[in-house]
Write a structure and sequence with these properties.
Number of strands: 0
Order of helices and strands: HHHHHHHHHHHH
CATH architecture of one domain: Orthogonal Bundle
Number of helices: 12
Structural class: mainly alpha
Strand content: under 5%
Largest sheet: none
Helix content: over 70%
Distance between the termini: 9 Å
CATH superfamily of one domain: MetI-like
Shape: globular
CATH class of one domain: Mainly Alpha
CATH topology of one domain: MetI-like fold
Amino acid sequence: MARFLLRRLLSALPTLLVIATLAFALLHLTPGGPFDSDRTLVAQIQRAIEARYHLDEPVWRQYLRYLNDLAHGDLGPSFTYRDTSVNQIIAQGLPIDLAIGGCAIGFALLVGGAIGLGAASRPGSLRDRLPMTLAMIGISVPSFVIAPLLILIFAMRLHWLPSGDWVGGSWRHLLLPSLALALPYTAFIARIVRASALDVMGNAHIRTARAKGLGDTAVLLRHALRPTLMPLVSYLGPALASVLTGSIVIEQVFGLPGVGRFFIGGALNRDYTLVMGLTLLYGALIIVGNFVVDLCYAWLDPRVRLNR
């Protein structure tokens, strides 16, 4: 286990370095700069601003300076949000995304997994066809349609929940964004679990369990559940990073100050350090998600050995 952890850590560092290098190169190849605007600045002021943020240096020196700051855990100052560092922006927005994303992925796993297993236990029946039809609709309908519908129904018509904003993690403000973010993932998980369960139920050890007189539910839970979850675990690797960092659309609709909104603002304003910092954050979350997937594989399938 220790060897596995060390190996994954050592492989993650070059990956993050490549991500940082590509983000730095692509941003600096983009025409314009973070302080370009329709209003022309006085030449002395322009030079002073560029010197303040080291933009007057050669690109290679800016790159080495950025790597040095990165090695010390400093993602640099934001060019758009004055007197604010990228670390502060991430510290402000990431907890919001983690709260919403954690609730969303928990709901999707519980509800989607239960729907998929229930559908697989009676293939071809109404219990199978109806949930899978709804799941296909959930996959097809984009989140920018689901979110306003939830606001229209639960906030404007029924007046049960607030339509947006963020008030210290209140569950009332957390529920609608989490539900809007969770529904597409719930549909995906339901279909993945159903397809995987139907495939596993045709294996020889499942037929043996049935021959011993076990019922469908007992066979599914005792013998088919672990191998059924293997494809789901593969899907959860990138899905965890996507869900935990929230959805840009969800943040815009509900007025949430998550990192996705900062990322869009930074890209539009050529905020180099902000975009690079958030890109590294997304890359790190994907690496962590894949690491969690490997651990889940080892738990679900004893034949997998992490120390190899």
